[in-house]
Write a structure and sequence with these properties.
Protein name: ATP-binding cassette domain-containing protein
GO molecular function: ATP binding; ATP hydrolysis activity
Largest sheet: 6 strands, mixed
Structural class: alpha/beta
Organism: Calidifontibacillus erzurumensis
Pfam families: ABC_tran (PF00005)
Strand content: 25-35%
Order of helices and strands: EHEEHEHEHHHEHEHEEHEHEEHEH
InterPro entries: AAA+_ATPase, ABC_transporter-like_ATP-bd, ABC_transporter_ATP-binding, P-loop_NTPase
């Protein structure tokens, strides 16, 4: 099998109904509902090879979750071709579900009121996993994710981080070749995120597990994925390596200045009005960030002018982050970075 995910011209439309006002309008709606067609996914094509770890990102409403639901067979496409693990997810649902693992960060596949290990045993029966395969594979998963102390606890008594580690283990009971992760680290603390990332890297290397990851936390993408797909208004606007994304659209630096006294943006813009600089407010008080290109003379000029005009308590320089690049793409559109 050349591609574990093979999608061509995939489209999903929904009907959005509207209500007319008043008693007369409500009566008319009984016989003649008004609606408009909303296109959530607009003729996208996507091919993923076995063993790839792909980041699938976009703003809220871009169509990420709708795509995942079609790839997992939850929704039927309006049109287009979709093959996952060589099967049609919607039409061959029973066979298909045995070949994938799914983790939705805001939904649980574990039973709320029973112990975690009882949920695991039920899923073992559902996926028809032998005792030997279960003990061998899940022993490693449970140990790596450090969830052995949680097995006797009801799911409702687990913290969010504990539950997400158990959700991930549950999705891997049958050791599927393909894993869908939809916001798996939402709301988790740094240590739990690191543990989950390391585990995902390990199963990818050990079992060649293909992973499709949707998340708003781009640090997850940077830590795990070499390839990134960016979705906007139901269309794929970028599909390529993370390295190329940085090379082509991240050609610049950010200089962060921490000022001793409050400073206004128009004052900084006056200082650098003849230079290719964009100023933005930092997260901390009295902090401003200068976005500049990689030309040494521009960087030097910005630093020289700001330091000469204002009192600085701290200064940091860093490459433009993936998050900043993606934000710029959404704000300005994806176009030739040289333009």
């Amino acid at each position: 099998m050349d591609y574990i995910i093979d999608v061509e011209n995939l489209r999903k439309e929904f009907k959005s109904y509207s209500s007319r006002g008043g008693l007369k309008g409500a009566f008319r709606d009984l016989f003649n509902r008004q609606y408009k067609i909303i296109t959530a996914v607009d003729n996208i094509s996507l091919k993923v090879k076995p063993g790839e770890m792909v980041g699938y990102i976009g703003e809220n409403g871009a169509g990420k979750s709708t795509t995942i639901k079609m790839l997992t067979g939850i929704l039927e496409p309006t049109s287009g071709k979709v093959l996952v693990n060589g099967l049609n997810p919607h039409r061959e649902r029973e066979r298909f579900t045995r070949t994938i693992g799914v983790v939705f960060g805001q939904r649980s596949q574990l039973w709320w009121d029973i112990a975690v290990q009882e949920s695991f045993r039920l899923l073992k029966k559902v996926y028809k996993v032998s005792d030997r395969d279960y003990e061998e594979h899940m022993g490693h998963v449970i140990s790596t994710l450090d969830i052995e102390p949680l097995l006797d606890k009801p799911v409702r008594k687990l913290s969010l981080g504990q539950r997400m580690r158990c959700e991930l283990a549950a999705a891997l009971i049958h050791n599927p070749p393909l894993l869908f992760l939809d916001e798996p680290t939402i709301g988790l603390d740094v240590l739990v995120k690191l543990k989950i990332r390391e585990f995902l890297k390990e199963i990818n290397e050990k079992f060649n597990t293909t992973i499709l990851l949707t998340t708003h936390d781009l640090s997850d993408i940077e830590a795990l994925c070499e390839r990134v797909v960016i979705l906007d208004e139901g269309k794929i606007i970028y599909d390529g390596s993370l390295t190329d994304l940085h090379s082509n659209w991240g050609d610049g630096k950010q200089i962060q200045f921490q000022f001793v006294y409050p400073t206004k943006q128009n004052e900084l813009e006056k200082l650098t009005r003849d230079l290719p600089v964009e100023w933005q407010k930092g997260e901390e008080a009295n902090c401003w960030i200068a976005n500049v290109n990689n030309e040494d003379d521009v960087v030097s000029a910005v630093i020289t002018r700001v330091v000469a005009a204002s009192q600085i308590s701290d200064m940091k320089m860093k490459e433009i982050s993936t998050e900043e690049i993606v934000r710029n793409i959404y704000e300005r559109g994806l176009k030739d970075p040289a333009v």
